[in-house]
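Structure first, sequence second, as always.
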């Protein structure tokens, strides 16, 4: 998992997702893998896939850090600047 975390940090998200897909295929109940795959998708800008992976991680482990990541991503999506609409 450390290698995958480094790939995500380095911006090599396609490679990280490929490795995570292979890992999840063999370890379906790994909440950490879903959380990391959510991070990789988020970094790519694929919000829907990120949220789906975070939700799966949360279903597998309610104490997963995916809970925080999910809530933060929802907060970002809900944010808007009302003042910008009147310009």
């Amino acid at each position: 998992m450390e290698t995958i975390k480094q790939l995500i940090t380095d911006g090599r998200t396609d490679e990280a997702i490929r490795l995570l897909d292979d890992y999840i295929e063999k370890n379906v109940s790994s909440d950490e893998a879903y959380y990391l795959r959510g991070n990789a998708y988020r970094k790519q800008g694929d919000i829907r896939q990120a949220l789906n992976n975070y939700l799966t991680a949360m279903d597998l482990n309610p104490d997963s850090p995916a809970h925080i990541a999910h809530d933060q991503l929802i907060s970002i999506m809900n944010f808007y600047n009302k003042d910008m609409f009147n310009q």
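Margin note: DSSP finds five helices and no strands in the chain.
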